[in-house]
Records
---
Amino acid sequence: MPVALVTGASSGIGAAVAERLAVQGGWRLALNGRDRNRLDRVAARTGGAVFPADLIVPGATEVLVAAASLAGQDRIGLLVAAAGVGWAGPLWTMPGDAVDRLLTVDLRATVHLVRLVLPSMLAAEDGHIVLVGSVAGSVGVRNEAVYSAAKGALGVFADALRQELHGSGVHVTLVVPGVVDTPFFERRGVPYARSRPRPMPPDRVADAICRAVALGREQVYVPGWLRLPGLVRSAVPGLYQRLAFRFG
Ligand SMILES: NC(=O)c1ccc[n+]([C@@H]2O[C@H](COP(=O)([O-])OP(=O)(O)OC[C@H]3O[C@@H](n4cnc5c(N)ncnc54)[C@H](OP(=O)(O)O)[C@@H]3O)[C@@H](O)[C@H]2O)c1
C-alpha cells in the first residue's frame, strides 16, 4: 500500500484530510506535525503512523521523507502539504524571525518535501502532490503580505511543476481554501474578524482535497466562487485595486 504523507496532520485541515483518507482506505498514513499529543490522537482515529518534526529545523524534510518511506516499506504515493502558519499586521511591524518562520514552513519546507518525494513517484510513474494554498495567494491581502507572497509562490510553483511533470504520471493539485474554522487564526495571534465569508469546517476542504486526488484535478477553490477575485485581478487589475482598497 502506498504511503500518504500528510503534513499539518496534528490540526485543522491536515487532520481532517488524514481522517478522510483513512475512511477512504488504500493508503498507509504518515502523519507529520510538531505536537506529539495531538498527532497521537489523530493517529488513534486514523491508524496512521506519527512522524513528529519541526519543519523549520534544517534537514527535517529529508529525515521526514526517509522515515515515512522506510516505516511504510513502500513509496510515498501522495503528499498533502498542509503545514502552515500565518501572521497578520503591517509588514514593517513583523519581526524578522516571524518572516523567516512563515516563509520556511509555508514555502521552503513544502518545496523541499516535493523535491524529495518526486524521484520515487517518477520511478513508479504514479503519484500525487497536493499543495494547500490560500486565496491570499491569488490576490494579495492587506496586512498579510508575507503570507500572501508564500501562498502566491506555491501557486506558480504548482504551475511550473505541472509542466515539468507533464506525461509522467505524477499530478499536482493546488487547493485554495477560503476561511476555514481551525486554530490557524488563534495561533497567528489575530482572530478572523470579518462577518463574511463565514468560516467553513475543515472537513469541507478535506473532502475537496480527496475528490481532487481521485479526479486528478489541477486547481480547486473551496468554495468555488473564490476563483472570482483572482480572475477580476488578472482581467481588470485597475478595478481590482480600487475594490481592494475599498473593501480590503
Ligand atoms: N484556516 C484557514 O482559514 C486557512 C485558509 C486558507 C489556507 N489555509 C492553509 O491551510 C493549511 C493548514 O492550516 P489550518 O487552518 O489547518 O491551521 P492549523 O489548524 O493551525 O494547522 C497548522 C498545522 O501546521 C503545522 N505546523 C505549523 N508549524 C509547523 C512547523 N514548524 N513544523 C511542522 N508543522 C508545523 C501544525 O502542527 P503543530 O500544531 O503540531 O505545531 C498544524 O498541524 C496552512 O497551510 C494554512 O496556511 C488555512
---
Amino acid sequence: MKYDFPKLDLHLHLDGSMLPESAWEMAKERNIKLPADNIDDFKKFIVVTADCRSVNEYLERFEMPLQIMQDSSAISRTAKELVELLAGQGLAYAEIRFAPQLHTRNGLTQKDAIEAVIDGINKGIENCPSIKIGVICCTMSVGPETANMEENLETVRLAKDYLGKGICGIDLAGAEGIVPLKNFHPIFDLAKELGIPFTCHAGDSQGPDTVRDAMDFGSKRIGHGHHIFDDKELCKSAIKEGVTLEICPTSNIQCQSQPSYEEHPAKKLFDMGMNITINTDNMILSDINLDKEYDRCLNQMGFEYKDLIKMNINSVKASFMPEEEKQPLIERLEKYYK
Ligand SMILES: [Zn+2]
C-alpha cells in the first residue's frame, strides 16, 4: 500500500542502501571483482535472503558496497541517489547514517568521507527539495573497544565540526556483544562534552543489559532496542525517561533477532507507552521501504493506521532536526488522524 502522510526514517544506513544498478556500474568502473556475471544475479547477491543467520552475518553483506565507496565520487553518488529514492517514496525527513572510518581504505580521510556524503546529500536535495535530511556519523564496534577508539573519537570530533552543516548526530554501530557495550563510554562522554546529539545501537542481537548501558550513556534514542521487552523494570524506566526505540522490523527478522513479525514486541512496547518508531535500517540490502514496513505493521504486527501516524510523530519528536522544524511537521501529520 502507498501511505500518503509525511513519512520519517530515523534509522537508515547508507552502505545498506546502494542501488544495485549503481553498485554494478561503479564496481565495474573501479575494477572491483563482482560476485556475479549479470545484473540479475548480482541483485540476488545484494539482497539479503532468509538464510541470513545473525546480525554478524548480516553485517558481512556490507562488504561489497563498502569496497565500492572508497572514493569521494562513489560516496557522493550513493548519498545523492538515496536522497532521491527516499523523496520519491514520499519521505518528509530522513536521517542517513554512515561510518566515516569505513571509507578510508584507499587513502580518504574521515573528513573527506563526511564531505563526500554531505556533497551527495546536498545534490539530492537540490533535485528533490520536498525532503529534509540529517546525517548521523557512526562510530564502530569492531572488536574490543580499544581496537579503534582513536578512530571513533576522531569521528565524534569531526561530527562536532560539521554539526548543523549536514551532520546532526552520532551513533555506535557494528558487531554487538564482543565486549560489554558500556566499555564504549568514552565515545558518548566526548559527545556529551561537545554537545552532539546521539543514538546508540543496542538490544538487537543482545539482551536488555545493552539497552541499559546505552541509557546510562544518556542516550534518549536506541537503535533497535526491542530486547528491552525482556526486562519490564527497564521498560518502565525507559518510558519514564522518554526513550525512543528505532524499530526496524524486517531487519530484526532477517537477522533473526526476532522470530517473526507476529512475535515482534513492538506493538506491546507501544501499548505500554514506549516511544516506538518504524524504520528500514537497510533499504536495498533488506529489499524494504517504509510502505512495506507499514504493511507488515498493519497486517502482521498488530498496529492500527492511527498508530502509524503516532509513530511518525514520535519520529519527529526524537529526530535530530532543528527544534523549530518539528512543530509544523507534527501539525501536518496530525491532520491524518481523521
Ligand atoms: Zn542499524
---
Amino acid sequence: MTARYIREEHHIFRDAFRKFLEKEAYPYFHEWEKQGIIPREFWRKMGEQGFLCPWVDEQYGGFNADFAYSVVINEELEKVGSSMIGIGLHNDIVVPYLSEYGTEEQKRKWLPKCISGEIITAIAMTEPGAGSDLAGITTTAVRDGEHYIVNGQKTFITNGIHADLIIVVCKTDPKAVQAHKGISLLIVERDTPGFTRGRKLEKVGLHAQDTAELFFTDAKVPAENLLGEEGKGFYYLMEKLQQERLIVAIAAQTAAEVMFRLTKDYVKERTAFGKKVSQFQTVQFRLAEMATEIELGRTFLDDLIELHMKGENIVTKVSMAKWWITEMAKRVAAESMQLHGGYGYMEEYEIARRYRDIPVSAIYAGTNEVMKMIIAKNLEL
Ligand SMILES: Cc1cc2nc3c(=O)[nH]c(=O)nc-3n(C[C@H](O)[C@H](O)[C@H](O)COP(=O)(O)OP(=O)(O)OC[C@H]3O[C@@H](n4cnc5c(N)ncnc54)[C@H](O)[C@@H]3O)c2cc1C
C-alpha cells in the first residue's frame, strides 16, 4: 500500500529518479565499492537533474519540494546500495543547517552550489575521544579578530574526502559551566589554512562511502563562517538530529525490504531435498516473521514521516523508529544471509554486501543505546 504522503507527482518523480539511477548508478556501483568512493561526476549529474536538495527555496535554486521527495530520493538511493547514504546526508542532514541557520549572505554563497553538486557537504561532530557524549568534544574555536582559530580532530566523517564545506562542531567557550552551552557550529571550507584531511578510513561496510578523519591545526576560519549564533550549536544539533535519525530509519527500512525481496526470490528458486527451499515450513515461517516485522516497521515509519511533514515534535518516536527499525534490519540481514546458504557469503550475491552494510545504522546518528536514553528520559522515568 502506498503511504498517504505519496501523491501522483511523487510517483512520477520516483520513476524519473529510478531511470536516472538505472543509467548513472546501478551499472557503476560495484566499481565504486571497489574504488572506495563515488565519483564527483555522479554528484554533478544528480545536481544537473535536480536530485540534490530539491526542498531548498526557489530563490536559491531549489524547487521548494516537500519532504516526500526526500523520502523517495533516500529510498531509491538505498536500493542502489547503502554507500549512497552520503548523498542523503548532504541533501537532508547537512544542507538543512545552512538553510535554517545561515545568514542571507551564506545562503546565497553556498546553497546554489549545494544544489548543483559543485559543493559536497559534511558535518563533523565526532572526535576520537567523544562520540555519544557530544558535550565532551574538545575541538576549540577561539576568536581572534576577524577569524576563529580552530584546533582539534574529528573522525568517522561521512563525505570526509569529498567535502568542500564542513559544519564543524567546536567549543567556542570551553569554560562554559554547562558544557553544551559553549558549543558553536563553524563552516569550514575546503582550502582553509590549517585544515587537513586524514586517510580514507577502511570500513567493514559502506565501501563506496568516503569516511575520513579531519585535522585542524590553528585553522583560520573567517568569523563570518559562524553558523547561527555563538554558543547555540548544541541546540541546533538537537533540532536537526531528528531528521538525521529519520533518514537513517528510512534507509534501514528500505534495506530490510530489499533484503527480504532478495531472499524470497532466492528460496523460491533454490532446490534442496527435491523441493524448492521456500516449500519447507520452517523457511516459510521465517519469511512470514520477517514480512511481519518489515510491515510493522513500514507502518510506524510512514506515520512518523507524516508527523514530521506536519512539523510535529517527533523526538521520542524518531528515537523509537531509529533503534527498532535498524535492529529489525540487522535481524533481517542475518536471516537473509542464512537462507541464502553458502551463496549468501559470496560477494557476488547482493545479500553479502547488505549484511555488512547494515550494522552501522545502529551506530551512527546516535547509537541505539543513545536512542533508548532519549526515550527513557521522555518517559520521565
Ligand atoms: C561509517 C560511519 C559514519 C559516520 N559519520 C559521521 C559523520 O558524518 N559525522 C559525525 O560527526 N560522526 C559520524 N560518525 C560517528 C558516529 O556518529 C559515532 O561513532 C557514534 O555517535 C558513536 O560514538 P563513538 O563511536 O564515539 O562510540 P562511544 O560513544 O564511545 O560508544 C561506545 C559504546 O558505548 C555505548 N554508550 C555510550 N554511552 C552510553 C551510555 N550512557 N549508556 C549506555 N551505553 C552507552 C554506545 O552506545 C556504544 O555502544 C560515523 C560513524 C561511522 C561508523
---
Amino acid sequence: MTRWLVISDNHGDRDILVSLKAALKPDTIFHCGDSEMTADDPWFKGAYVVQGNMDFDSQLPLVQTPTVDGCKVLLTHGHYDEVHWDLTKLKLHADQEQADLVFFGHTHELAAEEAGGHVFVNPGSISQPRGEYRQLGGTCALITVTPTAWVVQYYTRDAQPVPELKFTFTRNQKG
Ligand SMILES: [Mn+2]
C-alpha cells in the first residue's frame, strides 16, 4: 500500500507545497502543472511534474507517462487536451497511452471519475480553487494504492481530509 500526492495549480505558492509534503508524507508526488516554479526546484526532487500554460521553464515536460507501483499514469496539465471544454480529447490521449490513471489540472475544479477504463483525477487548485468546492479554499488529492483499489481522498490546505470527497475505484485485474 502506497500513498500518492496529486497536486496542481499552486501558482507560485511554494509554501503550501512544502507544508503539505511535510504533513502528508506521501511516497510519490505528481504535480499537474502551473506551479510557476522551475524544474530544478528542490521541492520537485523525486516528483513527477509537468508544465502548465503559466510555466515558462522549458525544462518542465508537457506530459509524463510513468508506470508507478504497477500503474500506468498519464500526467498532463490539460490545456493541450482542452479540458476546459470537456474530457473528450483527454480520454483519447488516455486510450493512446493505455493509462490506468490520468492526473490533470488547469480547470482549478476538482474531479474524480472513471471513464472508458481510465480513472481521471483533477486535484483542483491548491491555491486558486474554482467551482463547486471553491469554498474549501484549495484542495489536493491523496491516493492510496492497494492491489485492488485506488482510494482518492481530497485534502484541504491544512492537511485535513474532506469526508464527503472520498472516492474508491476498483482496479481492473489485468490477468
Ligand atoms: Mn492554473
